[in-house]
Amino acid sequence: MSERTDLSKWALLSIGAAVLTIALKTLAWWLTGSVGLLSDAAESVVNLVAAIGAFIALRIAAKPSDDDHNFGHAKSEYFSAVVEGAMIVVAAGFILFSSIERLLHPREIESVGIGLGISVLASIVNGLVAWKLMSVGRRFRSAALEADGKHLLTDVWTTAGVIVGVALVALTGWGPLDSIVAIAVAINIVVVGWHLVRDSTMGLMDTVIPDAERAAVDRVLDRFRADGVDFHDVRTRESGHVRFVQFHMLVPGDWTVRRGHDLAEDVEAALRADVEDLHCAVHLEPIDDPRSYEPWRR
Ligand SMILES: [Zn+2]
Ligand SMILES: [Zn+2]
């Protein structure tokens, strides 16, 4: 297993942000008695649960391979990302439901003052943390951190939607606008959540590595193709930040084991130089034996 820094400290940042927003919203509820703020605080508890889930997943992912998990623990991040995606979809469902309900049964907007102020403050905190998590997540190819960042970002959109809605109603005097804006935001959030769930389950399904990296693998193998040397049955899969590639290397049958192995080492080194966090498995076989062309598994 390649060594990768333990990324769980970034999940701690998210846990801190969740605790802070819960405290802010609870304080605002205590000051104003607004039930809306209390349910807002409850919503932030979801962020806390998600952040703790990401923390646990990242701790597990950072463990090196062991007797029980010979290929490492990188996939644990997908579980956290799937849960984040599902939580986002459920949260968006609630927004959608309450917006449609308000559209059908219009009522006065609750006094916005301190509640909106607290929401904006919480959104600024969440927005900054989301931006950091997503950039670290992309840099280290961490599904859990990217998912948690996207999750926090949906909170920012929700608050932005509320503000835009309130402003539009004030400008136009047309009441239903704030519900319509909230519905649009909720639909957008459902799409984000759905993509998270889809991408992460695909990761759990041993999806092939991204096209650009597969092309890099093929370029390296082409470079080593020569008289009597060929490759076939190339298979790849992605596991968190780790990429696995396995292939058969066909060489002249009268080569010594040492010569074949030397070439295999060179090919592996070239592949690892071009693709980050790559693990190779090479099967060496004589090019003149018809059995060589049978794939490992049918
Ligand atoms: Zn070897
Ligand atoms: Zn073969």
UniProtKB/TrEMBL annotation:
Q: Which residue windows are transmembrane per the record?
A: 12-32, 44-62, 78-100, 112-131, 152-174, 180-197
Which residues does the UniProt record annotate as the domain Cation efflux protein transmembrane?
12-205
Which intervals of the chain form a coiled coil? none
Q: Which domain of life is it from?
A: Bacteria
Instruction: Provide a GO CC annotation, any one.
Output: plasma membrane
Q: Which Gene3D superfamilies match?
A: Cation efflux protein transmembrane domain, Cation efflux protein, cytoplasmic domain
Instruction: Extract the Pfam families matched here.
Output: Cation_efflux, ZT_dimer
Q: What is this protein called?
A: Cation diffusion facilitator family transporter
**Which organism does this sequence originate in?**
Gordonia humi
